[in-house]
Structure formats: structure tokens, C-alpha cells
Amino acid sequence: MTREEAEKHHFFEHFKTALDCDDLRNQKIKAANNKSLKALKVFTEVLGYLKDDALETIKAQAKEGEFTASDFTWVLTIPAFWGHPAKRFMTDSATQAGLVTDDTKDKLMFVLESEAALTWCLKLQSDGFIKQNHSRDSQDQPAGAAEPDTSCNDPAGSQEAVQFTVEPEETKVLLETQRDGKRYLGVDCGDPAGSQEAVQFTVEPEETKVLLETQSDGKRYLVVDCGDYSHFTVHDVLKGGALKTKHEAPKNDLEGQTVERKFKQFLREIFCDGVWDEYEQNFASEVKKIMYDFTRLKHLDEDVQISCPDNLKDEAQKKKQIETFFDSVEGASWDDGSIRISREKLRFFYDENLQRITERLREILDNNLNIGYIVLVGGFAENQILRQHITDQFEPQYKVLCPLRPQEAILKGAVELGRNPKLVESQRKHPAWFKCLS
Questions:
Q1: Could you tell me how far CA 259 lies from the centroid of its own chain?
Q2: Would you tell me how many other CB atoms lie within 10 Å of the CB of residue 221?
Q3: Of 157, 173, 415, 427, which has the fewest Cβ atoms less than 10 A away?
């Protein structure tokens, strides 16, 4: 896309965290090119795209039958600190996007990200969690590992299971059906985890019964959702496996993009004398590619290499030999066409986030809430540096757990809660937690 074409479009990043829950109707969100659109328009367009992509994916892989949006119950995951105004806003967005209509709003459900993730984690066997010091590749669990025990009824005339593949860059979809014919579609609107492997899901038309494994020691779970913002929620596990929210930390300023901002600032320090600023202005799409490559690699606890685009090389060599740009900086070097970032420098990018997350965790743990487990979920939880830091700080007093593919835990748990909302105890504080607000 040329620069002229790009100026005709809007590019939004991390817009969910930009919501001001006090003034949603009139709020506008600024795009990368400084143009603005109403928040309702942005969310409507995104949900509409996810809906269309999900239906097209299912249509392409299903062996028979036609599906429309009204065939599904749509489950949207939301942060714990979102109140009723934000949920009404999402209801309006989902309605305008065509997920539901005014007559089918009962097919729209909201679940807390922390409740969804913990619901899935409680179903996992011990090999369903990341063991510290594993490489990121080890998150690809072997066949049969980490999946909850299941027993399936097989009624007469049941259909054959449908299997389809979803790439992580596309909409992530889990489809479940029950005997009552209802289907539940969970859409995780978070950032992709960066994995390149395809993810396979199996759809069983018959009812599936899952044996829920729960702890019996009475200890509570502190769920840390490490996404665009870090959210902290404490849950009880009741008899039968239902969850009850005991504590919700208020919205905080622990932004997940701090690491990316520090990395970009470091690139500006390397390519000084205005080189980076000129490159960023003229080749914005290539800058996005560099940042995407960094997002995929930042989860590692080792030196990382990022390919340097030819246009950045050309801009730099207008000033001097590109190797000399690295002489005055620590933690980076030129490596035959790539920018090598040292492990120590990568850790430095995380220092501020780790310190503030640790402080917030200690504040909650000091409240004597009988917490026994710290569960890390969300895209940031894939990071080896974060997991090792939290483990070093809080074990053995607290058991630190992180599921394989921690971002997908939210999605899979959302489907489970869609199928069985009773897994979360209703509370007066949230009278319509699992129903669309009219």
C-alpha cells in the first residue's frame, strides 16, 4: 500500500484499552494517521469482521449445512473492571455488527476474561501447564497431553465429528454443540500470541460431558490477565467447580505496550541523527513489520535477531556505514543484515512492567485473602522473563501456574462458560453477568 493509499484508511491498535467507560457514546478513538472515528464505529467494524471471518471459516470446513449468525450464541470476553455502561456499549456494537438482532439479544453473552481462563485451567492435567525454563516451542503440547478428561454420550444417529483448522492470525474459533441444538461461538479479541503453527479444534455434535478437576484445599486463585493491561482478580472455587469472584482490582495503568515503546525508542537511539524518524515517516508499514517481528520474539529469554529492511539500511547509509551506528549503544549489534538485541537488553525493556506487576500482586496478597495460587494468562503470560520473575518472587509460598498457550485459555474457557453458565456463581453485584443488557 502506498503512502497516499494508506492516508485514506484508518489503522487502530490496542483500541480496547482506549475506552473511557464514563463517556462511551461520544468517545472517539484516534488512528495511527491521527484521524479519528467514533468508538462505536470501530468496535462495530471489528466485531463484524470477526463474525464474517468465523462464519466463512466454518462454512469452508463444515461437511454439510449452512450457518448464519443467528445459529450461534456469541460469547464475548471482557475485562473485570468493565461495568454495565461498557457492556451496553458492546451490546450495541454487536447488534450493529450483525451478531445478534434486537429480537435475539439473548444469544449474546459476556464472560470475564479471568473467569474464562480459570475455568479452563481447572480442567487441565498437570502437563497442561508450562514448566518453568521450558522453551517457547514446548508450549506446543503433545497429542493427548493437557486436555481434560472427557466422556461423551453417543446418541443414535449422531453425526460425525467435524474438524477444521484455524490460523492464529485469523479469527480463533471454538464451536461446541449440545443436544438442545444450541451452538456457542467464542471470539477472543485479544492480540495474537505470535505462534505460526495452525491450531486444530474438533467439533462434536453430541453432548460432551467434562470431568472438572478442582482443588479441595480451600485456597483461592489470583488470576493475572497479562494483556494490553494487567488485570488482577481473585476467585473461589466452590463445590462442584463453580467460580465465585471475591476481589476485583480496579483498573490500573499497567500498560502491556510499555515493552514495545521502549524497543522503538531503542531503535531511535541506534539510528540517530534523524535516521529512524525519517524512516518511520516514509515507511510506516515496514515499521509495523519490525514491531510485529519483535512481538513474536520478545517472549524469549535469550538474544534475539530482527531482520533489518533494505530501506532502513539505505536511510542509514546515507549518513555513514550502518555498522558504526551500533558503536555507541549497549545491548545491540549488527549481524549480517540483522539487528541483534542482547538478552540483557531485552530484560531491561521489561524491568518497569515487572516491578509494577510485582508491587500490585503484593498489595493484593497482603490483604489476607487466603490465596494459594497465582494463575498467569493472556498473551504477555507467554513471556519466559515474566513467568520466571513471578515464580522467583512468589514461590514457594504461592503456587504459580501458567497454562500452555495462555491466551487461548481465555477463549476455551469462554466456550465452557457459554455451554454452562452455572460454572460461575451469580452475584448481586453483577445481576446480568451472562445475559445481554437491554
A1: 16
A2: 24
A3: 157
